[in-house]
């Protein structure tokens, strides 16, 4: 199936409904350290124009603004943007949040010194279109910085479990391909010179595997929607399947969860 036969707009409508379910920032806020490491790897400077694509509640934008960059976050889920505005106001950070699609950014060509995303743009269903947009809005000589879950890591395995309960749309590539160097090379070609490709680990810390499953079922929108469609034995089986995921990556020996989740930190220069 080619990309011309996939209804990406319909897919994004369903995705948006997923992110507008639950309360994703309850999960996303725990990932702030990924954004802090990313902007450090990208060597963000004060006064630079920084764009956070598929920003959710604005982790990259907040990290950049803390370094006195002029930060903008863009996302298509308006509820997440509103929470981003609340976060920025609480921290007295001048971040601009704008509604927009990662595959059709409402921003001018060559307008940002750094375009970044932490586990955000990877969920755009049309990978090539999203990559093209990242390049389009980055200044020549500017940087593109991405943090994406890897296929083999814990979140890659989580998505495999989720796909058993809610199969992904036909013709859409897995989001975790953004966490594979070869996929980035294919998407960006010679338009980006990747100067750093680093495998890192984020540690998910929860009271127990069951707490992890409960938290994601309550707050991680796409999983919340699946859980809401189940009852009785199916609901319990789904919760059990989710709880099994961190067990395979857990190194804690005190009954809590400290589960390593691999992601690819990619920083490159736009030619």
UniProtKB/TrEMBL annotation:
- Annotated GO MF terms: S-adenosylmethionine-dependent methyltransferase activity
Entry keywords, A to Z: Methyltransferase, Transferase
Say which domain of life the source belongs to. Answer: Bacteria
Q: Output the Pfam families linked to this UniProt entry.
A: Methyltransf_11
Q: Which CDD domains match?
A: AdoMet_MTases
SUPFAM superfamilies linked to this entry:
S-adenosyl-L-methionine-dependent methyltransferases (SSF53335)
Domain Methyltransferase type residue range list: 51-145
Q: Does the keyword Methyltransferase apply?
A: yes
Instruction: Give the InterPro entries listed for this entry.
Output: Erg6_SMT_methyltransf, Methyltransf_11, SAM-dependent_MTases_sf
List, alphabetically, the Gene3D superfamilies matched. Vaccinia Virus protein VP39
> What biological-process terms (Gene Ontology) are attached?
methylation
- Protein name per the record: Methyltransferase domain-containing protein
- Species source reads Kribbella capetownensis
């Amino acid at each position: 199936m080619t990309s011309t036969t996939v209804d990406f707009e319909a897919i994004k409508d369903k995705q948006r409904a997923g992110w507008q379910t639950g309360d994703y920032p309850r999960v996303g806020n725990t990932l702030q350290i990924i954004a802090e490491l990313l902007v450090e790897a990208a060597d963000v400077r004060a006064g630079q124009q920084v764009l956070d694509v598929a920003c959710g509640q604005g982790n990259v934008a907040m990290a950049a603004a803390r370094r006195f960059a002029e930060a903008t976050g863009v996302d298509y889920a308006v509820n997440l943007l509103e929470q981003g505005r609340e976060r920025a106001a609480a921290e007295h950070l001048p971040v601009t949040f704008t509604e927009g699609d990662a595959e059709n950014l409402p921003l001018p060509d060559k307008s940002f010194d750094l375009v970044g995303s932490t586990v955000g743009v990877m969920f755009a269903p049309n990978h090539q279109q999203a990559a093209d947009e990242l390049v389009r809005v980055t200044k020549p000589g500017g940087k593109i910085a991405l943090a994406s879950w890897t296929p083999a890591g814990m979140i890659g395995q989580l998505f495999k479990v989720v796909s058993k309960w809610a199969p992904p749309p036909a013709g859409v590539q897995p989001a975790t391909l953004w966490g594979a160097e070869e996929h980035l090379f294919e998407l960006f070609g010679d338009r980006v010179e990747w100067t750093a490709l680093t495998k890192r680990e984020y540690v998910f810390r929860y009271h127990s595997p069951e707490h992890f499953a409960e938290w994601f079922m309550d707050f991680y929108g796409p999983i919340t929607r699946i859980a809401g469609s189940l009852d009785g034995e199916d609901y319990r089986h789904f919760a059990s399947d989710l709880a099994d995921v961190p067990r395979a990556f857990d190194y804690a020996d005190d009954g809590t969860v400290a589960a390593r989740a691999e992601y690819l930190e990619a920083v490159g220069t736009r030619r």
